[in-house]
Write a structure and sequence with these properties.
Elements lengths: L1 H8 L6 E3 L13 E8 L6 E7 L7 E3 L16 E3 H7 L1 H4 L4 E9 L18
Antiparallel strand pairs: 1-3, 2-3, 2-6, 4-5
């Protein structure tokens, strides 16, 4: 699985950090993403990042026969999700950072629209 990650997945990933210089990235409708909480190496500062799970690859990756679970019954299919392979290799995407947690997430909906009304409040 490590070789598959390095040759097929890693080259097409684009991790995006969220900080004051990089606002929250736009997430495509129905796209699968990993939300990641990181800690920087020099500071205790917690950071947030996002990695889009590529939809150009199969969502589930078959395991090689030598990695199939051992069982008395024949194995019909054994595999792992693409997002789990990425999650298992987050250190390669964020070298020097401490991965505190990660979660798979997606947004379902046609549009998210937020409106903010600002009213003037008279001085009392």
């Amino acid at each position: 699985m490590q070789q598959y990650f390095e040759k097929q997945i890693f080259p097409i990933l684009t991790p995006l950090a969220v900080d004051p210089a990089h606002p929250f990235p736009v997430m495509s409708n129905l796209s699968l993403n990993l939300a990641i909480v990181l800690q920087g190496p020099e500071t205790e500062e917690t950071r947030f990042a996002r990695v889009k799970v590529p939809d150009s690859l199969s969502r589930f990756v078959p395991l090689p026969a030598d990695l199939h679970p051992k069982s008395d019954r024949p194995v019909v299919w054994a595999g792992v999700s693409l997002e789990q392979i990425i999650a298992d290799n987050l250190n390669a995407l964020f070298p020097g950072m401490t991965i505190q947690e990660h979660h798979a997430t997606s947004i379902a909906g046609s549009k998210l629209s937020l409106r903010l009304k600002i009213r003037s409040v008279p001085d009392s």
